[in-house]
Amino acid sequence: MNFPTPIGVSPACPQSQRDCVLQPRVARHKLPGEDGAGRIGNPKGVVTSAGLRAFSLIEILVVVALLAVIILGLVAMFHQTQRALLGSTTQSDILEAGRATADLLARDLEQMTPCNSTNPNAWNFYAQLELQNNNPNTPAVLLQPLLGANDYQTNVMQILFFVSCYNQHWSATGYALDRPDLGVASLYRTNFDLSTNYVRAYGVSNVAAIPQALTDFNNLVGAAMLNKTVPSNFSRIADGVMHLRVRAYGTSGVLVPLMNPAPRALRLNSLNLGTANMGAQLDPPFSSSVYTGDYDYSFNSNAVPAAVELELGILEPRTFERFKALTNNLTAAVTWLTRTNRAAQVHLFRQRIPIRNVDPSAYQGP
Question: Where are the domains positioned within the chain?
Fold first, then answer.
């Protein structure tokens, strides 16, 4: 279809010029850097996308290394904070458990009462070193090396038995440890009602029942050693106990076996009825290769210690849990306990306990 030729355009004009004439003209401004021909260059001060610079590989690696150092520092800081928090929590837990156990022992021991019995086997206070598997030549003693050369921490375990009286009601209390052969044990407590239970079982009561109660206590402790189980009439007091020691002191404040002049009871060659007897025997037996300088104690008649020094050592809970995981191999478990840094994980509690019912006449000379 042919259109009429526009005004001002000759019929011989090329088609492209006709299109240009037909299109309306729109005013436009020059772009920055555009020359007269409409080309865009790169004049000074104008940055284009083609002229942008990126990070080099070395710069990226340096940044990654710096970030890694910062992250490692933060992780180390958080780890130290976590260890400090865990350490303070452990200290708090062990102090709470140790003080509670020591306070319980102190409350029981300070109420010790002399029975004034004429029976030499009626012990008011009895303490003996625990033996491994009831073997007299194998005392429950564990030496832990310290940082200094030839320096050791000596851990011993003793069983305790003593009697008390409340308003003419007599009772006996015993403390024992379940596994002294391992070096770490749980502390158990038992109580004997001497006023009612022994009347039905043995026909004796109060002071007359003390020898039978001591026999029953020793039998229970011996059975626990052999069977590796604790009887049901024992109550567990604390776990992780590595050290339990008592020392008896006289009215002069001196250790009873070292009193000079010795009390009349210590100079007796035999037990005399009605006379106070304070026995003191070096522990462990002389046939043992380990000598700790401790004593077995046995007080009867009107004699009880004027004061008792209690030492209690408890292993940290986390260390105790790791130790229990090794108890399938006793040799490996004991070896693990005797490493140099293990002694620092045993917390010691020491307390001097005065005995309120002490009879000073038991400490008089001849």
Answer: 85-363
